[in-house]
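Researcher: Next sequence.
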Amino acid sequence: INKPVGMLSQPADDKEPSLVEYLTGYLLESGAVTEASLHTFRPSVCNRLDRNTSGLVAAGKSLTGLQELSSLFHDRSLHKFYRCLVNGVIKNEKYIKGYLHKDEKCNKVTVQETETSGALPIETRYRPLGDNGTVTLLEVELITGRTHQIRVHMASISHPLLGDTVYGNSKNPYKLQGQALHARTIGFIHPPNGEYMV
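Model: Next structure:
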C-alpha cells in the first residue's frame, strides 16, 4: 500500500483513522473480506512508516499472508529501499553502522558509535543519485529497520533530511510538510513459488 504523508500506519489512542482502517474498508468494498470474517481475523500492516513518511507498507489480508510477510520483515530477508533528499552534497556510496538508543519519553532516538546498554545495532547503505550543489537525492537501503533510523543516521553524519525538524535543521526553504523521505521499493522472495518480487 502506498501510504501518503500525514497518515498513521496503525491506530493510535486518539481514534484518528489509520492505514489499517482504510485497508479494511477497501478489502470489504472489494469483497476480499466480509464482516463475518473480521470477527476471527482483522487485516493489518506488517511494517510501519512515520506519519510524515510516504511510501510502501506491506499488509496481510489473511492470517497466513500476514504471518508470511511479517516473518520476512523479522528475519530481514526483505529488502527495503527509500528515496530521500538530504542537506549537503554526497558523491560516494557508503555503508554506515552505529547503535541506536531510544528515549521513550520524547519518542526520539540518538546514534552512538559504540554499544551501550539498551542500544540496538543499526546498518544503513546509501547511494547518491544526484545533487544540485546544495541538496542530494539518495537511494537508501535499510539493512536493519529501527525507529527513525534513516532520519537520525543521516543527521548523525551531518546530512539531515530536508524538512526534518526533529533531527535536522528547523529552516524549511522548500516549505515541506515533513521530512523528504519515501519508502519506494520492497523486494522479497515470494514464499509459495520462490520467485524474487520487487
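Model: Residues 163 and 177 are 7 Å apart (CA to CA). The two ends are 13 Å apart (CA to CA).
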